[in-house]
Design goal:
Blueprint lengths: L3 H7 L6 H14 L1 H6 L2 H9 L4 H17 L4 H22 L8 E4 L4 H10 L6 E5 L7 H10 L4 E4 L4 H7 L2 E4 L3 E2 L5 E4 L2 H11 L3 E4 L36 E4 L6 E3 L2
Parallel strand pairs: 1-2, 1-4, 2-3, 4-7, 7-9
Antiparallel strand pairs: 5-6, 6-8
């Protein structure tokens, strides 16, 4: 049931959750007849991608349509993804009043929402961006390259240089994998470090997210990467821990900006 294209989606440890959502959408759109014939594939997708709230919500819409009508159509798929495609424009309008010309924004990881929002903002205001490399997969390079391609000035730093960088920036913008009911956020490991540093240096931390990432649950399913992503070595006394997600409590967050 799981082909090579799905394996690539399941093993994607670099893309943000919305970017993976679009990959799932494209896969389902291209394999619509197979999905209609084998609706249990939606259940498999939900299980494999359970840590991504926005994808779980998207797949739930499809499950409900399959249960009520017995099939899904291309028009239905386009309708449920339409709002997500408009998200950067909506969020950029809400973020714009928070930014003054030539200010510096710091971000990390590879949030598709943050990247698209910055590219949208760049159409009307000039700013600078500090991007942390985001180990172990160095996905910060992806954001940096996309910004550079649009002639946005970027300073690329290691995580160990974050205190210095946050002291100099005007604000921090990050994405989210899950928005919890109490205002806490689940996001890439390193988010709490940013929260602590923003508190120390009195800098605002903004979370940019789709409303579909809101969860009714108060917990999340941790996703771990392989040990080799951190250090390709082995020793009986060595323990390597590579969690991808962590809790960022709401008292670290200045504002959650959504659609």
């Amino acid at each position: 049931m799981i082909d090579g294209d799905l394996e690539n989606i399941f093993n994607d440890n670099i893309s943000g959750s919305r970017e993976i959502l679009f990959k799932v959408h494209d896969y389902i759109f291209s394999n619509l007849s197979s999905i209609n014939d084998k609706p249990e594939l939606i259940r498999v997708l939900k299980e494999k991608l359970s840590c991504f709230e926005v994808i779980v919500k998207y797949l739930s819409f499809i499950s409900y349509e399959l249960a009520s009508k017995g099939f899904i159509t291309p028009d239905f798929l386009d309708d449920i993804i339409a709002t997500e495609k408009l998200l950067p424009t909506i969020i950029a309008k809400r973020v714009s009043p928070l930014i003054k010309p030539h200010e510096t924004i710091l971000t990390f990881s590879n949030s598709f929402t943050v990247t698209e929002t910055l590219l949208e903002l760049n159409k009307t205001i000039e700013f600078y961006v500090i991007v942390s490399e985001s180990r172990p997969m160095l996905e910060g390079r992806i954001i940096a390259q996309k910004l550079l391609d649009k002639q946005i000035k970027v300073e690329f730093i290691t995580e160990s240089f974050l205190p210095n960088a946050i002291a100099r920036c005007n604000m921090v913008m990050i994405g989210a994998d899950v928005l919890l009911p109490n205002g806490d956020v689940i996001n890439k490991v390193g988010s709490k470090l940013l929260g602590i540093l923003c508190k120390e240096f009195c800098k605002p931390l903004y979370v940019l997210s789709s409303r579909l990432k809101r969860s009714d649950e108060s917990y999340f399913t941790q996703k771990f990467g392989t040990k080799k992503e951190v250090w390709n070595t082995d020793h009986r006394l060595l323990q390597i821990n590579n969690p991808y997600l962590e809790l960022l409590e709401n008292h670290f967050i200045s504002k959650i900006i959504t659609d």
